[in-house]
From TrEMBL:
Belongs to the GMC oxidoreductase family. PROSITE patterns: GMC_OXRED_2. It comes from the Bacteria. Pfam families: GMC_oxred_C (PF05199), GMC_oxred_N (PF00732). Keywords: FAD, Flavoprotein. InterPro entries: FAD/NAD-bd_sf (IPR036188), GMC_OxRdtase (IPR012132), GMC_OxRdtase_N (IPR000172), GMC_OxRtase_C (IPR007867). It comes from Pseudonocardia alaniniphila. This is GMC family oxidoreductase. Residues 250-264 form the Glucose-methanol-choline oxidoreductase N-terminal domain. PANTHER family: CHOLINE DEHYDROGENASE, MITOCHONDRIAL, GLUCOSE-METHANOL-CHOLINE GMC OXIDOREDUCTASE. Its cofactor is FAD.
Length: 509
């Protein structure tokens, strides 16, 4: 058994790194436990540091998921390394929109309006972009919008093609308006992905006396006594104790740990022979952004593929709810150039970013300690399917605009032989995800959610969840920056609670 800490954080990813930074800054004792390796900030291997390399690259949990369509199973990429999936993602640094948080409020959550979350967004970022009223200048995470001169010829052609179809050019996706096309804002500096293990856990933070980072250690369950969390148990049986346990193991990891601890759907836990401590809808409500790759071979004179991530069109489908922007078309070179007959390719990746469909996460009946069972249920409603097909048709229209056609040799997928009548089946055959899972430990009132509006597990003292799993609905943007913001806010509430306890103890004394 380890020495007890004030706070124990499970997971050193996008949320966990922010939590460890904030909580240890005040002199609190913090133990951060990460299943992967804790690389030094300047010693991340090239496959994690190079922003043009996206994917697991040997630092992955190896999860797979059922798409819910045509019996297909696909990789559910989640990184295993300090910095979590921020070490392998495309480093897109776009905030969720005010309309997203209005839905959270409508779902019964307190303290999550746009005006309340904006200060936390600003506090974590360091950027020269945008206005002082909306953007942060002194945070730990550098965010830079690609400049036109940094883009490849085909990325510029994509922006021009979208503009030819009438879409406006957006100045700052993290500004007041998002409907339109523009280069990406990214947490990338000189081609290097600045993951949360670098930004929030630099050498200065790691040297704090109260912060202990335990790496290469997988946590399987929470240690509970009299409905209070007092520690966690690692896969090798080692116990780590703390006054407050914070799960930041992600949308798959956090629900799995909770269910192994007896916190989850009663029928599922009883079926596995796990004693039920709290009957809560853990693992329900999984949301993902469905993703289809519309790919073009580029002409030999325009086949540059660096930088890989360049631009995005963010807009509303014809059936979007008022105020929503529910379709992304991103222009990237995240494709093996050897698979293109011309040695260069552009991916116009289409996503429905406000899906109705929900899946779930469960423990494996054969091996509850192993990888969770993930079912996406992608495009599980007619509305989701209609919007995906509309987005793919729009991507193909951009592909035929004069601006973009100049750099195109041929369409690779779905391919010119795929007519509109055949499009739905083709999309389902090739459907993937953005790797943006959320909402399996959702915030909500007692009887509906797993945790309250501050991440505290209903009915269990001393146990908090603070990662993308607690989002009640998928945001319309990549959730990485919103996950950091969320962790920053939960850390603030934990510190406020600690101050109240200290003040109360002083008065009693």
């Amino acid at each position: 058994m380890s020495t007890s800490s004030d706070y124990l954080i499970v997971g050193g990813g996008s949320a966990g790194a922010v939590l460890a930074n904030r909580l240890s800054a005040r002199g609190q004792s913090v133990t951060l436990i990460e299943a992967g390796h804790a690389y030094r900030p300047n010693l991340y291997p090239a496959e994690l540091a190079n922003a043009d390399i996206v994917g697991p690259n040997g630092h992955d949990w190896g999860y797979v998921a059922d798409t819910g369509q045509l019996g297909r199973r696909i990789h559910a990429i989640r990184a295993k390394s300090l910095g979590g999936s921020s070490t392998v993602n495309a480093a897109v640094a776009i905030r969720s929109r005010p309309a997203d948080f209005a839905k959270w409020t409508a779902a019964g959550l307190e303290d999550w309006t746009w005006d309340e979350v904006l200060p936390a967004y600003r506090s974590i970022e360091n950027t020269a972009d945008g206005t002082d009223e909306l953007r942060g200048r002194s945070g730990a995470l550098p965010i830079r919008t690609r400049r036109p001169e940094e883009l490849t010829p085909s990325q510029l052609a994509f922006i021009d093609g979208a503009a030819e179809l009438g879409y406006r050019r957006v100045e700052d996706f993290n500004g007041a308006e998002q409907d339109g096309v523009a280069p990406y804002p990214l947490n990338v500096i000189s081609g290097r992905r600045i993951n949360t293990g670098i930004a929030f856990l630099d050498d200065g933070v790691r040297s704090r006396a109260g912060l202990q980072i335990v790496d290469d250690t997988e946590i399987v369950r929470v240690l509970l006594e009299d409905r209070r969390a007092v520690g966690v148990v690692a896969a090798d049986g080692t116990e780590y104790r703390a006054e407050t346990i914070v799960l930041a193991a992600g949308t798959y990891g956090s629900p799995a740990i909770l269910m192994r601890s007896g916190i989850g759907p009663v029928e599922h836990l009883q079926d596995l022979g796990i004693d039920v401590l709290a009957d809560l809808p853990v693992g329900d409500g999984l949301q993902e952004h469905p993703f289809y790759y519309n790919i073009y071979a580029l002409t030999p004179d325009a086949n540059s593929m660096h930088p890989a991530s360049g631009a995005i069109l963010w807009t509303a489908s014809s059936s979007a709810l008022p105020g929503d922007l529910d379709v992304h078309i991103s222009a990237t070179h995240l494709f093996d150039p050897s698979a293109s007959p011309t040695g260069g390719a552009m991916v116009l990746a289409v996503s429905v970013t406000q899906p109705e469909s929900r899946g779930r996460v469960r423990l494996d009946r054969q091996n509850p300690q192993g990888a969770p069972v993930i079912a996406y249920n992608l495009l599980g409603t007619p509305h989701d399917m209609d919007r995906m097909l509309e987005g793919v048709r729009l991507a193909r229209r951009i592909g035929t605009t004069p601006a973009f056609a100049r750099v195109v040799d041929r369409e690779l997928t779905p391919g010119p032989e795929v007519t509109d009548a055949l499009l739905e089946h083709t999309v389902l055959e090739q459907l993937d995800v953005y790797h943006h899972p959320t909402s399996t430990v959702a915030m909500g009132p007692v009887g509906k959610g797993v945790v309250d509006s501050h991440g505290r597990v209903h009915g269990i003292d001393g146990l908090v969840v603070a990662d993308a799993s607690i989002m009640p609905l998928a945001p319309s943007a990549p959730p990485n920056i919103t996950t950091m913001m969320l962790a920053d806010r939960v850390a603030g509430w934990l510190l406020t609670d600690a101050d109240r306890l200290t003040a109360a103890a002083g008065q009693d004394g």
